[in-house]
Amino acid sequence: MFPREFAWGAATAAYQIEGGWQADGKGPNIWDTFCHEKGRVFEEHNGDVACNSYELWEKDLECIQQLGLTHYRLSLSWARLLPDGTTSHVNQKGVQYYNKVIDDLLACNVSPMVTLYHLDLPQALQGQGGWKSPDIATLFDSYAKFCFQTFGDRVKLWITINEPYVCAKLGHEDGIHAPGLKEPGIAAYLVGHNMLRAHAMAWHSYNSFYRTKQKGAVSLAFNSDWLEPLNAGCTEDIAATERYFAFTLGWFAWPVFVTGDYPELMRSAIDAQSKKTGCSGSSRLPSFSKDEPAILGTADFFALNYYTSRKVKAGGGCGKMCMVSDQDAEVVLDPSWPICGVSWLAVVPHGLRKLLKYIKDTFNNPAVYITENGFSQVGPLQIEDVQRSGFYKDTILEVAKAIQEDEVNVRGYFAWSLLDNFEWADGFSVRFGLFHVDFADAKRSRTIYQSGREYAKIISKYKCGQSKEKTE
Known about the structure:
41% helix, eight-stranded parallel beta barrel, TIM Barrel
């Protein structure tokens, strides 16, 4: 049912689990700053301690082993390794921490998938303009080369940047993520552009200097919902769905996998809206320079973070200069889809299968890793989380159908998340973990959910089947 070398994993991110925000020479990052400002995060929660994985890594490793994972996705804290964001000062304590994590994983026959950037830019670089600065691409490339040089002898799967769409829109247009900027219609496009430039530089660096010896693979993680027209027979809704795809998944995947440039739907829509709002001069959507490394082809696999599905209808623009007006489309929930904890997360396992087929057809049948997928819990704690257990069974069945019936080249599945953790603006009020973390307990005790036990059974079942295949 699943390929022999299928990756069964779970994912985490440094700021969401590590804590130790000032420990052993780590520099501050934009989420440290953001969370320490009043009114930014649910009930003033922050990641100062979080799951305390910086001190309790061995506990995390026990959780990984209990699940029987073959792979574990983690991110590196840029500011823990390079406190000011540059290689002028390397924090050896940070290097030692990640060396231990990687070595411990490999000793347990668990392969690391390592993300270089998961939303936590060093504050020192934000002070120099952050992702809005054109210089950030070169700085990121230097950081990436440092990581490839330091850890690449043991890491075979790399993600350069996690969810550039989220960083660009939520952090620089909506202001609800760090660094908390609200510059509609301009900053998000600039940030997204510089993230693509940074990714491409890092991929080319790996390809030129490390690939032959290290034999790894590099990509960036796209987040995408599955999208359908609200009215399947309405040409306006069908066109709006195409535009919405262009402005979300297409924004970053199209340059990397299709043309080396942004989707024409995106470019033409932004140009048209710019004229309406009286903008003059160059487009608000930047252009790629021919003097820099090419964007096209800079992904060795397609990394997908999928959580939910949406219906799309035409309209919704406010007439002002902003991304919503540019795409002139809005999303709504299908009332038949159950809501999971948070308002934005409708439970639609079949949407993942449809999205995987869309990726195969649109992006030239790439190898796909599902690098995040999960189900949230809010309110009273339910260790026996029956609904979430069913979600994992249903979702993984849809992945199997995508592989068998649609012939999508899916290479792995990573649940979000190994642990209940700091869920950005929602703080600790939303729980995605396969293990519950008691944040009221100084020891941050971990307890496996029923869904964690169910996922472990699924992994054991299919790993066992793969073993049988190998011996036959």
